[in-house]
C-alpha cells in the first residue's frame, strides 16, 4: 500500500473556519473514511489524534480529523480565538460535523467520495458523534471513547452564577489559560433539550457501535458509559471498559508516546472499523 499523505483545507463553520486534515494512502478511488471528532478543549492535533489518524490511514482508511469552529485554536493548537470557544455549543458542533460529512461525501476534500463513512468521537465529541450517528444514515459504523451521556455538565449553583455573571471561566490545565464560556451553551442545552438528548439518541443508533470507556476516567465517569451501553440496540454493538484507563488513556499533549491502555484502544478501534466499515 502507498504511504499515506496529508492534505489540509478549511470549510465554513458556525463560529469560524473548520480546519480539516485528510490522511489517505490513495485518493482517486473510493475507500472507507473515518471522521475523528475531538472533545471539549480538544483539537485535531491534540496528543493522540494525529497518531490515531496515521494508524487509520495506514490501515487503508481515509482519516479525516478536524477542528470544530468553536475549538478556539489556531493551526498550532493555541487558544487564540477565545470568543469562538466562549460561544461554542453542541448544536454548533453538530452543524459543523454535518458540513464536514457533506463535503466528504461530495468529494470536495481533495479525496474521492468515500465508499462508506464511520465516526470516532472522544468525550464531548463522542456525544456529538452519537447524536449524529442516530440521525445520519451515512454513518455506518461508530466508535466512541469516553463519551458524555448528558450535555449538562455543571451543577445548578454553578449554572445560576454563570447566568448572573454572563460567563463561566474554565481553566486550560495544560497552559493555565482562562477561557470564557458564555450563556450560549446553557441556552442551547435548554432550548434544544430533546434534540440534544444523548441517551435517547444512543437508543436509536442502528449502526454497529463500539463504546470504549476507562474505568478510572476522571473527567467523564464510567457511569455515563454504563448509561449509554444499557441502551445499545444493534446486535453487534458492544462496550469495552479499559482497566486503569483515564480520560485520555494516558495520552498527553504534546504527544509523549503511547501507553498500554491507549494501545488497546487504538487496536480495538481500528479492528472495529476494519470489520464493520465495509
What does it look like?
Helix 3 packs across helix 4. The strands form two sheets. Strands 1-2-4-3-5-6-9-10 form an eight-stranded mixed beta sheet, sandwiched between helices. It has a two-stranded antiparallel sheet with strand order 7-8. It has one domain: Alpha/Beta hydrolase fold, catalytic domain (Rossmann fold, 3-Layer(aba) Sandwich), CATH 3.40.50. The protein has 278 residues and is α/β, with parallel strands linked by helices. The chain is built from nine helices and ten strands. The two termini are 18 Å apart. The longest helix has 17 residues. Helix 1 links the parallel strand 3 and strand 4.
